[in-house]
Amino acid sequence: MPQNSEAVEFRDVTFSRNHQPLVSNLNFSIRRGEALVLLGRSGSGKTTTMKLINRLFTPTQGQVIFDGIPTTDWDEIKLPPKNWLCNSRNWLISPFHN
């Protein structure tokens, strides 16, 4: 993929649990080489947003697209081999830096 292509894109993403939206109508894209910082209060949807990227959660509405492929097209058991996420107060996402 070209250096400036979108690595992650959220298209009108909503995720709900028990009929309560945890993330609502989220739209953004991250290009290769860019970094994204999610800042917010506890319960504002930061962790939920990250879990939507690697399909630990599936959007109730909209699409999360990773490397040009909707995450709903992934095998539910395995992540794409280039997708790394770790959560210990901080998140690291690769392959944004080639």
As an assembly, this protein is: single chain
The CATH homology group name: P-loop containing nucleotide triphosphate hydrolases
Briefly note the CATH topology name. Answer: Rossmann fold
Structural class: mainly beta
User: Any idea what the radius of gyration is?
Assistant: 13 Å
The residue-averaged pLDDT reads 80
Count of all domains: 1
List the helices and strands and how they pair.
Elements: E1 6-17, E2 20-31, H1 46-53, E3 61-66, E4 69-70, E5 84-87, E6 91-94
Antiparallel strand pairs: 1-2, 1-3, 3-4, 5-6
Overview of the structural elements:
With 98 residues, the protein is mainly beta. It has a single domain (6-94), classed as 3-Layer(aba) Sandwich (Rossmann fold). 8% of the residues lie in helices and 41% in strands. It has one helix and six strands; from the N terminus they run ββαββββ. It has one helix spanning 46-53, and strands spanning 6-17, 20-31, 61-66, 69-70, 84-87, 91-94. It has a four-stranded antiparallel sheet with strand order 2-1-3-4, with helices on one face. The longest helix is centred in the middle third of the chain and has 8 residues, at 46-53. The protein starts with 5 loop residues before the first strand and ends with a strand. The mean pLDDT is 80.
Short description:
A hairpin with a 2-residue loop joins β3 and β4.
Notable characteristics:
98 residues; mainly beta; Rossmann fold; 4-stranded antiparallel beta sheet; two-stranded antiparallel ribbon; 1 helix; 6 strands
